Amino acid sequence: MRNKIDTTAMTLTRRAFGAGLASGAGFLAFALPVRALTVDQARQLVDKLIADINATINSGKSEQAMFGDFEQIFVTYADVATIGRSALGPASKQASAGQMAAFTKAYQGYISRKYGRRFREFIGGKIEVTDARPYKSYYEVISTATLQGEAPFDLRWWVGDKSGRNLFFNIIIEGVNMLASERTEIGAILDKNGGDIDKLIAALNAT
Amino acid sequence: MTNFGSFIWRNGPKTPILAALVALGLQACAPAVPPQGIDDPFEKQNRATHALNLKLDTYIVRPLANKATRILPDPVVKGVSNFAGNLDLPGMVANDLLQAKVGAAAQNTLRFAVNSTIGIGGVFDPATKLGAAAKDTDFGETLSVWGVGEGAYVELPFYGPSTQRDAVGTVVDVIFDPTRLFIPKDKRWVTTAAQIAARIGDRGRYSETVDSILYGSADGYAQARLLYLENRRHNLGQTTAESEFEDPYAQ
After folding, report:
1. Which strand (E) or helix (H) includes residue A114?
2. CB-based contact (8 Å) between B243 and chain A?
3. Which fold has domain A2-20+34-205?
4. Pairing mode, if any, of strands A153-160 and A138-146?
5. CA-CA distance, A114 to A131, in Å (whole number)?
6. Has the ipTM of the complex gone over 0.95?
7. pTM reported for the whole predicted model
8. Banded pLDDT at B12 (limits 50, 70, 90)
9. Residue in A151, A169, A185 closest to B218 by CB
């Protein structure tokens, strides 16, 4: 009799324990969504990034010095390796590890110079974050750019932490998607070089 | 038969433009399915046109634009652009009304009234400072609102990137421009001249950006095509970024 009660109690306890564990995990899963990055953190990242851009824009430095600053900003806040792999497209699967390492290095310089030059258009202007929202498994931070003598335009930043750090991996300027534009461009350079990744790397380094 | 198709069917193609629209075989469906990807069956012809446009830019438009923006002070170039933009407003109001966008029609009307008077014939743009910025639209957008799909991508000679739908829209906007009602026949060349001058001025003002696309890209045609389609769809409220989201981390 006593034994039986004990067993029942134990069974109950074990079941309760199991249930508690499940609900605890459920609670944890609820309290800590799969993404560790939060919408506020994503927004803070872009706020910080934009503060850096605005500081450079209004620094009064020479254009050449600003290019250097913009390059530094790009490397600090963007997941350049992922943007590069996406730009290379299917060819990234055929490339050797050595080729990918060389490509990523070349691409980082190339894209920093290219977008550094484009940020130049922001000189004398201002960018402000207006909103941030979850977007797929990432976050979209929405900002408005007001440039001298131009109507304000929409600038969106896609932020994620899948690289291990909180970084942006895409910019959407008035609907124009950087990743898509980069894939078109890198694909075209690759085609021009007969699909040879080593020649592509050389071409990127030469820009 | 769908909205726009049946509209034409019932009323009959009254003008060559509507006939052309029907002949183009634009897919009419209400509401228009948000377009995705790139539909470019005329790529060979388009690339030939692009080569022509590029020559025109290299030898005429670009040198002229750079010279104009170098010689003329910024406010003058901006003034020409404002003047031409002001002449576009009556057409935009008409399109706003065709799209049943009363608020936009009111704003563009107010803008036209303010800039034509206080803005001295549209050379200055006090309306923007008063909170009535341009709400750009055109007949291509009207067609989109009516449910006409964008059709194939086309690059037009002298004009640049467009789609079948937007090309028809551009022709309609030029032919039925209500601004013509305000301007005596012998002064209409002024509008045309202003519009050409404004385009040259814009080419000069955005010289570096345009150069980077046309001359700095490995494939300027493909880059211009992508930028045009993405930006156009964005302006028409068809967010391609969402429908075409590709996860770069999922590769």
Report:
1. helix A97-119
2. no
3. Nuclear Transport Factor 2; Chain: A, (3.10.450)
4. antiparallel
5. 27
6. no
7. 0.80
8. very low
9. A185
